[in-house]
Amino acid sequence: MTKLTAGALLCAAVTTLSGCGIFGKDGYFRDRGDDYQLADSLPPLQVPEGVSVKQQEELYEVPQVSAEVDRGEFVVPRPQALSVNVGLDRVKIQKLGNRRWVLVNQPPDEVWPQLHYFLRTTGLQLALSDAGAGTMETTWLTFGDSPETKDKYRLQVESGVQPDTTEIHVRHLAVPLDAQVGGAVNWPAQSSSPEREGWMIDEMSGALAAESSGAAASLVAQAIGGGKVKVQVMEPAGKEPFIALGLSMSRAWATVSHALNTGAYRLHKEDADIRVFYVTYDPERELAEDEEGGWFSSWGSGKGEDKLAQSADAYSLQQVLANIDTSANVEPALFANMQGLGGAPNSNIPGYLVVLRGVDDAIEVRIRNTRGLPLSRAKTSELLMAIRQNLI
Fold this sequence. Notes:
The protein is about 25% helix and about 20% strand. It is an alpha+beta fold. The chain has a six-stranded antiparallel sheet, covered by helices on one side. A six-stranded antiparallel sheet has the order 7-8-12-11-10-9. It folds into two domains: about 130 residues, 2-Layer Sandwich (Alpha-D-Glucose-1,6-Bisphosphate, Chain A, domain 4); about 150 residues, 2-Layer Sandwich (TATA-Binding Protein). It is built from eight helices and twelve strands. The protein starts with a helix and ends with a helix.
């Protein structure tokens, strides 16, 4: 009885003290997760005269920041949703316009020996195998239904957009049977025969899908791509973050469009001529997709209802562009030389504008609010990472 009474008194005391400044932001038991932002640099250690000093160097060098950094509240990033890239086949055939390629959910150094095995078992001999360039070329061959021509294939192996993935691009060339060939081949921009290209893609993807072990890896193939990264989220000091894409503009537009209609994003309007998307973002959409058809999907505001998306659908892209604040001097000037900018009062339009700028192999993806103004650094990084993880 005494122990029970003491425990009850202790609980009552803790409950009373919790309202007296013991807990909370300024209390004794406060959250110290952001204290590192207030840390200062200490001067180097001074040793007495006459004592030899061993030369030392900084193990963890802290970069110099030119501008004052906004010390906002630290927000623990959300883990990647389980729905992202779950259930994807190990081998897929991707298509963009009239271009097709094979996507393998394995790194290039594991795919490279599998391609060699596929070519050997198919009876195709290699005239060239350059792991550094990621290029394989077959010898000249003749198809039974086309005896008047001789044919050749090139397989271009590249790192994929997502980590530890591989893209295999196929090019087919056909020339007259009596054509003189030798030395380097002048490969056309497109295959001579889309049907022959499609045959190789189908056969190759089927063979790679059947080879599921993926245990072997090629040491020489580790240099494929020369370390080039196709997608990076850049966070330069003192400037707004952006995504750098080492893709052609057509490929970049297509893959960003896909990412902006996946997961927490919804794509409402787009204009390929000015390279602008109008989107909304709501992390709860990922939860709704994970539980689609479950008990939670019909609980609350109603199954399938997305009030944010419905609100955004009511605006045209012209209305959103007219809402941009043209008086703000923001660099880079993403909306320079566009028609129909500004002129409308701030309408509190929901969502964001995603803008692509640059040239092939040097595309930048930036995100702004519907007034055309930059977001906080933390919010920008969150939104860009959500795009990056759904690129294809």
